[in-house]
Here is the input.
Amino acid sequence: MAPPAYSDLGKQARDVFNKGYHFGLWKLDVKTKTNSGVEFSTSGHSNQDTGKVFGSLETKYKVKEYGLNFSEKWNTDNTLTSEVSVENQLVKGLKVSFDGMFVPHTGYVSRRRPAQFGYAVSYKYRRRSPAAEHEAATSGLDSSTNNILTLSYRSKTGRFKTTYSHDRVRVDADFNVDLSGPLVNASGVANYQGWLAGYQVAFDSQKSKVTANNFALGYSAGDFVLHTNVNDGREFGGLIYQRCNDRLETAVQLSWASGSNATKFGMGAKYDLDKDACVRAKVNNQSQIGLGYQQKLRDGITLTLSTLVDGKNFNAGGHKIGVALELEA
Here is the structure.
């Protein structure tokens, strides 16, 4: 089995701390799939503190015989992201993809702005005056030319990504399309008898500077996972995951930053009450206590409740709750 990506090292422990908690949010997720294989995912949440609402719509389509994957995502910040990828076609284990982010806008784009990767597509709309429409109708002109809509899209960013995975090694690399100098990210993970070693680097070619230099070492034995990492030689961290039995999962995380001498420590657990319900709990060294309850109401409907309690200021209030509803069909 191929090792995970560098970003997924220690994922089992992070899931214990992160999944099932939606503090300060009202959240709704809807997923569905058509008979033709197109997947639709809609997500929205409202921040209880600010009242800000954020939503997104994502579509995915796969052409399995050619190894092609298409995805497109739009959110309420009016950002459109598209990705196309090809997997196991050029070389077995190789995946090549390109993604771009687009921001719809109208108006003139100044030519004084620095050159950047992008393309534009425009469609114009202009409604003629009643007199012009009457003149076009009496002269026998095609009325379909009466209205012209103007809408332009300009690409903001573009990125090429490649991934090669083997039974013992996985390598990931990506770079953005920037005429002034791309930012290159690369990582690799090797697996040997349960031991995992990974390295991640980021290089800014415009400044000729290494912006990230991270190393990780871990061990995975099915129900037990140990992960340690060093980021830029200044931040040190560790994660431990243990599946005690079929129902109970536990995790511990520890981090220390040499610059600020700040230490963070936390413990978390997830317990399955039955096949349809589970409870979660976590606590850190800042006396923040997180509790969660998840219940599958029926097939395709799951309700999640969570709360964050500030143990240091219990009487002062400011505690948070979260409610999430997941629908899938």
